[in-house]
Amino acid sequence: MRRPLLRLPRLGLRARLSLGMVAMVLLITLGVVTTALYFVKRDMQAAIANEEFERISAIAEAVDQKFLSRRTLLKSFGDSVEAHHLANTAQLHDFLVRHTSLKDAFASVAVADTNGDLVARLSGTVLPGRINIKDREYFQQTVATKAGVISQPYRNRLNGMAQVAMTEPVFDEHGEVLYVISGAINLSEHNFLGELASVKFGKSGYMFITNTDGIVIDDPDKSRILQRADAEGGRDPAAELAMAGFEGATEGKDRTGMKGLYAFKRIGQTNWVLGCIYPRDEAFAQVERIERYTWAGALLLAVLVGGLAFAVMRFQLAPLTRLHEHMRVSHAASRYVPMTELHPEDEIGDLSRTFDSLMLDRQTAQERLKASERLLRDVTDNLPAVVGYFDRDQRCLFGNKAGLSVQGKTRADIGTMTMKESLPDAVYQQLAPQVTKVLGGTPTRCEGTYDRNGKEGFFECHLVPDIRGGGETVGYYVMTFDITRQKVAERERAAGEARIRTITDNLPALVSHVDASLRYTFVNAHVRALHGEAEPVGRLMADVRGIDDFRMVEPYVQRVLAGEAVTFEKTGYSTRGTSQNWYQSHYIPDRDTEGVVRGFYAMTFDVTERKRAEIRSAESEQRLRGLTDNVPALLTELDRDERVVFCNGRYESWLGIPPASIINRPIREAVGEAHYEMRKPLLARAFAGEVVSFEQTAKLLVGERTLQTTYLPQRNAHGEVVGLYILANDVSDLKQKQMQLDTLAREDALTGLPNRRSFEERVGEAMARSRRSGNPICLLFLDIDYFKSINDSLGHAAGDAVLKEFGRRLKASVRETDVAARYAGDEFVILLEDIAGPHEAQLVAGKVLAAMRPAFVLSNRTLQVTTSIGIALSEQEDEDFASLMASADSALYAAKKDGRNRFMMAASRFATLDVSVWPRKESVAR
Questions:
Q1: Are 640 and 715 spatial neighbours (Cβ–Cβ below 8 Å)?
Q2: Strand pairing partners for 228?
Q3: Greatest pairwise CA separation for the chain in angstroms
Q4: Tens digits of per-residue pLDDT, 776-830?
Q5: Which of 58, 68, 51 minimizes the C-alpha distance to 196?
Q6: Catalytic residue IDs
Q7: 716: DSSP letter
Q8: DSSP-assigned states of every residue in 192-225
Q9: Which tens digit of pLDDT belongs to each residue from 294-325?
Q10: Per-position DSSP letters for 120-143, written without gaps between them
């Protein structure tokens, strides 16, 4: 068994104040010492930093002077070269060798021509073309700018030394660059910095040089020269700051982690940054020793002063202890009794008297508050809403009668139940996100659903944060209203709007409503698609349609706003802008209950096809003109009981049925019993949720037409089918075009004869008739003799002319009941039905041969054309077209082999006949 922890006794105010005074003395003493030490330490650190920065600045100035002196030396040498006009490289080399002062200042000095070839060096000889520095950036900059530069660090190609180069141009008499003098400085030798390289900062501090690109120029570790400062790992934030442009002193760590005091100075002649680091342990050793002695003395002084302050505070606060005891007793009493002890004439006495006065005022205020609370509860209990207040922990601190009755709670539960416990779980889950918002200080509102005696109910909840003086949200107010009736009404209205929207979106027209201020308040899907991403609703007609189009329709707009129904036509261009279209618009006034025009309805149809048909055919003008006045479709809406809820005016113009006469009547009565029974299975499928589409031929007032009818299920918000939309479109013109296309697909375009597809269909039908009647059929297979030679010698145009004339003569050679067709290329076929025997087929073949005998007259010449014919006669009832065609083809081959310009019968139970000599005397015209 665990032993209970010891509880420390609670300290009284007098003890706390006494201890507080001691703590205050201690804190003040420590604060004074800390402040004094801070300023002393800061001043000493500033002095060390300033000294370090001054030293590094002096070194940077010395380096600048070294660069300036070397630049002056190079400039003087360049001026001498210009003055002596040394164009000969040998003279130039000798002249360079004589200037020994350059050797003391530079590791090497060289002269290059404008091609980058070295022509002279201070030490050694230069072989032409052996060394070229044209690719060096410092050389390119000197030639381009015609001024001396200090290069970026680089490695010498000959000796591998890390160097920088200083350059000066030498000009000819025309001011153009003749030579470039370059002096190299070795970065790894001390002759550049001289005595500056031995400068130390403390015992272990050091100096280094980098450029602003992070390349090490000089460092105690010579292996790092020409490397990036971060190449060996580890960051140096202070050095990175200096590379970015900082100058001065700062604290930081080097890449090895050593803390130190940095100083940085930029060198004026180049982009070098001169830096040094003074180890912190060495720089601030004396400051830290002074700080330790100071803290020891301060602690001793604080202990002595604190003890004296503790004794004085205990004595002075004795009356306050007695006042505290009186306050504790008064807190437990039901009514306050003023303090009987005489109040001292000091601050504590004033506090006692003030406490008596406040407690009496509080007692009066509590009685008034109770009366106000009773009034507030009476008011909220009679509100038709749920009212409550919850703290940050969602604990209920107030709830009216309606709110408590939600879960059967009473006032005794206030303060003990949470919001989750006071509401049904489904309702609380809907409000949980809003509670999170309001506890964040944001007023919010939401709508939700609840179980209303087994039915769906709706509520609207407002949550307002209780934000106190410091901006803290300590709780929130809740007010909830029942909006079931409003929601049910909105749903019914939305269902009606959805029905209208579906009807208008399925009409092949632009439908919209415009108010009296000429702003769109409604558009159907076709209008939205016409205007793309720009939403027309809420915008002016002139803005949506464009000013030119609006001016065209403005007179009609003024007439409809005056109360007149207007119909007019106008032209426009298609969405691609490639063809002119015609549109018919209907503007109908929208009047309120008092007859005042508050806007108008607009319906626009694309009547381009009708207009174009009027131009092509005057006979159809009257029919097309009537179509522009109405939607070219029968539109009907049925409810679940198959009653007609809506039908458009096309019923009267097409069927002679006034729409008003069938509204609210069953569709069975409207269309007739026989028609209804025929469509009943399709209606059942549509009411089951299927989109049903079919075609039918109907006798309308305008004549017999083909209608394409579609049954579209109408669904409510839950996806249930509550009715049907019936759309019947006139597709007669489309059917006619399909028939024309079908005819073209079966006719040879060149000869006008049936093509292969059409011929094979007719052969199939003929063979079926032959099998039923027992009468044989005959197939004649023809081709034009030497047709390839005609094409090759005279061209395809002549060949086409021969084929066309051949087809004409062939068609004239047979009966109207016979079928002559172009089978392929120069191959033709003839189908004979109900023939008496092979003799009749031979007569036809002879007639064809005779028809081809006259010369063919072409555009520029005449031509003798002959044909060869193979004849096959069906002999068996189950004989197919392929075998019959094969027999005719064999006979044709035999006719060609025998000399062409003749016909041959296929081998059969009849003897094979050869009629190559034509005509015969016994031939009789058929």
A1: no
A2: 215
A3: 169
A4: 889 999 999 999 999 999 888 899 999 999 999 999 999 888 899 999 889 999 9
A5: 58
A6: 826
A7: -
A8: TTGGGGG--STTT-EEEEEETTSBEEE-SSGGGT
A9: 777 777 777 777 777 777 776 766 676 766 76
A10: EESSS---TTT-B-TT-HHHHHHH
